[in-house]
Structure formats: structure tokens, C-alpha cells
């Protein structure tokens, strides 16, 4: 029994561990680069954690590269952070991060890599890389002879939000890539080899570029997260609920002039197409939609004829009824006189 009680706290942790999908964070919220495994830089000032601009949280990474920066005596100039994950073939992950290119970022026909998954080997292009050429963002998979599966114009002074869904495999029938950019799918799930045979990949983030580029290059990164579920790196968008609009109140009806009741009249229409028209008339229609069924075929004269479609006919009916009543009273008044004359004649 005592042994079971000792194991109880660990048993409570099992569901949490089993459902946790965030594998690793490299979002710089520690205020430094301690979440990462290694730096390849000529100076700590080239990989600087800053508070502005930040895409999320309090901190981001500012990467600076100047011509001649070559901390590992290899081709090109670079300053990069490394995360040595070395995922095995068959593993599948979602990677989220954001990158901003400031106004000063140099335009060049030469390559400038800002995020890459490099292979264990020492030479050759990485099997998966994000880079810029002539102000165009590109994603290439498969190294120097690989396939560019995404291109987009480079927009400076705004954050690019990336979510990369990858299954790592050297088998083109097993591996795949799917890419979201700024919340939209820009590369649907595409089968492709994402590793070189017999080699594992690791992440490099920063800036690595052709050595012939002379101007200083600066790029910002933020919010890097690795997870096993999409919802942990790209939450569903919040849909704003529109505020209810006040409904117009109907105008009070005037009591019938002749004192009759409206109980036997048909119920009013729930919607009046004419009343729903905009207050400003549409040019050429007088405020009415052409072909409106509420007016077609009724024989109602236009409003410019002097009598309205609702007031003209009742007035004529009322005048006729008044005339009939007057004639009736005159007939009733003359009837007794006519009877007296007839009676006197008979007498």
C-alpha cells in the first residue's frame, strides 16, 4: 500500500506527459539564447536578444551579418543559432516561428538563408532551407539540385509567420512538407524526401549568405516552437461576433377614418422590399429596384400624377358614398309629401 502511495504522484503526471505536444521552445523568452544548443558567431553582438521589435512575448532575436563574418571558416558569411534535435526518419513535427526583414535588408541576386535544417554531413546544401534571392522568399527541399516548392515577394517591415509541417524521411514516398504563411496554406501537403540517406537534420536560425554581399544584413526572429499538433503552433482564429443592431420600430397606425375594424384584413408583410431600399435613391431608379414585384401589374399611377397610391382611391370611394347618402336622404324626405298628395287626390 505504501508503495502505491509513493507511485501515485507519478501516475497523475502520466496523462499530462502523454498529451503534451510542445516538444521544444526557442522563443527567447528567457531573455537570452540559452534555449539553443550552440552559436556560430563572430561576436555576441551579432546574435542579440532584444525587446523590440517582438512578434510575441517580450523578446526576439536580432541577427546581424557583415561582410567577412565567417566564424567556422566555411563558405559564405554567417551568424546562426543551432538546435541539435537530429530527428529520426519517420518523425513528424510542426515548427512555428516568425521572421521580420527591416527596411535596410539588402537586395541581392545572391542567396541569403534565414532558416535551415542542415544535415549531419560537412558539405553540400541543406535538405530544407528558407532563403531570399532578389527580394523573393523561397523554400527549397532537396539541396542544390532540389525543388523550390514555394516563392513569395519579400515584404519589409512586417512579420512573416511560418508554420512548417514536416515528416522527416529520405524516402520521397514517405516524407512530406506542408507550409502555412501568415495563417494560410501556401504549400499543401507535398510528398518529397526531406532527409539525405543515412543522415539526420538539425535546425539553424539566423542569417547565412553569399560572401560577395557587401551591405550589412539584419533580420529578426521570434516565437520558435516545435510541437506535434497544429493547434499548439497555430490556434484557430477568433471569429468576432457582430453586435446586435437595434430593429426599427413601426410607426403607430392612424385609426380608420370610417370607424371600421381591421380585424378581417390580411396580416402585414414581414418585410417590405420598398421600405428596405436605401434612403438615397439609386441613380435612374427613383429609389426603387427595377422590376419590383410589389408595384408591377397593379395599375398604380406614378406618384407625380397628384394622387398617391394609398390615398387617392379611398377619397373617391368616400365621395361616392357621401353622394349616395345625400340622395338617399332627399328621397326619404320627398316620399311623405308624395304620399300626402296621392291621398288627397283619392279623397
From TrEMBL:
Residues 260-272 have a biased composition (Acidic residues). Residues 243-255 have a biased composition (Pro residues). Residues 238-313 are annotated as: Disordered. It holds the Pfam family Polysacc_lyase. Keywords: Signal. The keyword Signal applies. The keyword Cell division does not apply. Residues 1-20 form the signal peptide. It comes from the Bacteria. This is Carbohydrate-binding protein. It comes from Archangium violaceum Cb vi76. The lineage of its organism: Bacteria, Pseudomonadati, Myxococcota, Myxococcia, Myxococcales.
